[in-house]
Design brief:
By secondary structure, this protein is α+β, with helices and mostly antiparallel strands. 52% of the residues lie in helices and 18% in strands. The strands form 2 sheets. A 6-stranded antiparallel beta sheet has the order 1-2-11-10-7-8, with helices on one face. A 5-stranded antiparallel beta sheet has the order 3-4-5-6-9. The longest helix is centred in the middle third of the chain and has 58 residues. The radius of gyration is 36 Å and the shape is elongated. It starts with 13 loop residues before the first helix and ends with a strand.
Length: 409
């Protein structure tokens, strides 16, 4: 087999089509249609030559010869784009090609014999017919070769683009898997306090991140949102969350941690990409909550005693916008039965029946209704809120990442 499948010559076309073996059905048919259309031109040339020069039996043979080549090329193209057909074709290619070659040879013999008889009979006009027939046959065959070469270049170029795309998709898939591990659901129960956090990205790489962890008797909860939904936003999200976890290991003041993150993002990004973030520290023994905000949404504090939601908010500039930003802590008390709810803007910016974006008041009403219903745990409450948001969102697809943390005192 090495004689017919080597670096210089091969009867197989794997190198052309292997990048398209896994493409969708529509794309396969576009490749097949391109071969059907472009390789039809040599057949049409054969018909035109036959009609123009009245070649008789020679014209019929010329059309048959071109049609046979046409059929072989199309069958081969179709076969290479479907696994089962490809295996069959490569296994029995000689049984397909050899009979075609024999038919061409037999046809050529009879045509040649006919030409000889006419020449022997002294029909001088046959000299011109012979020349026309040979020129037509060579021309048709040359057009097939030219068409095949042109299509091969297109396929090779497409293969190069597809291969690059596949590499990028593989990188994105790898980054997505890392991000999914980073954003796995978290549940915490400590000292009578229970908490739950989750995040749903709108596409492969989301810009939202959250942190829910214990350090001694301190519960830390944070939600952040990187501007944009690009690959860069996903990388910056990973960087920011990793930096947040590192800083919390040795500094547990929210405002100081936020300032350190702002310095980091100012060095790592330009002004076109930034992060909003809120960081909450809950001292479990005494019920003291400390909150710092960097351009993010207010924290909902549901008071069980008053059965109402209070907005906890301390104004702050988004991270990475300016190195001159200053951050401050907001301290408040929480009581037994209270709830603290942190969220991202993907839960607020839902669309109504007229495809208009709703304001934050609609989401707050959904939260109030969900809190009023009986709930046994923060996870159940979070699920109820997310279902309420999804059922009231008329967007055809998820437009932004959504993250949610529920803490029950």
């Amino acid at each position: 087999m090495s004689l017919i499948a080597n670096e210089l010559f091969t009867i197989y076309r794997d190198s052309e089509f292997e990048a398209f073996y896994d493409v969708d059905m529509k794309s396969r048919w576009k490749i097949i249609l391109a071969h059907i259309v472009i390789h039809l031109f040599p057949v049409l040339i054969a018909v035109i030559v036959t009609q123009a020069y009245t070649l008789g039996i020679f014209g019929i043979w010329l059309i048959a010869f071109s049609s046979l080549l046409y059929a072989i090329v199309i069958i081969e193209t179709v076969a290479y784009l479907y696994p089962k057909l490809r295996t069959f074709y490569k296994k029995y290619i000689f049984r397909i090609v050899f009979p075609a070659g024999v038919l061409i040879g037999i046809g050529g013999y009879f045509v040649g014999e006919s030409l000889s008889e006419h020449i022997d009979e002294g029909e001088l006009e046959m000299g011109n017919i012979v020349i026309q027939f040979i020129a037509g046959s060579v021309g048709v065959f040359f057009l097939f070769i030219l068409s095949q070469f042109g299509l091969s270049q297109i396929v090779y170029a497409s293969k190069s683009l597809y291969t690059r795309k596949a590499k990028v998709e593989a990188d994105i898939q790898f980054a997505t898997e890392i991000q999914q591990r980073i954003l796995q659901e978290v549940s915490i129960e400590e000292g009578g306090v229970t908490a739950y956090a989750c995040s749903n990205p709108a596409n492969e790489l989301g810009g939202d991140f959250f942190e829910l962890s214990l350090r001694g008797d301190q519960l830390f909860a944070s939600i952040g949102d990187i501007s944009g939904h690009s690959f860069g936003a996903g990388l910056l999200m990973t960087l920011t969350k990793s930096a947040l976890q590192t800083h919390l290991d040795y500094n547990q003041d929210p405002a100081e941690v936020m300032s350190a993150l702002n310095v980091l993002l100012n060095k790592q990004t330009d002004r076109s990409m930034y992060a909003t973030m809120t960081l909450l520290k809950l001292n479990i023994p005494d019920g003291k909550a400390t909150l710092c905000n960097a351009g993010h949404l207010p924290v909902y504090h549901y008071s069980a005693e008053k059965s109402e939601i209070v907005h906890r908010y301390e104004k702050g500039v988004g991270l990475g916008i300016t190195g001159a930003a200053r951050y401050h802590d907001l301290v408040f008390d929480v009581k037994r039965g209270d709830l603290l709810i942190l969220y991202s803007d993907g839960l607020i910016e839902t669309r109504d029946e007229n495809m208009r974006i709703r304001d934050a008041g609609f989401f707050e009403a959904l939260v109030s209704k969900s809190v009023a219903a009986d709930s046994n745990s923060p996870r159940e409450l979070a699920d109820r809120i997310l279902k309420a948001v999804n059922s009231n969102d008329h967007s055809p697809e998820m437009e932004d990442d959504s993250s949610l943390i529920v803490i029950q005192i």
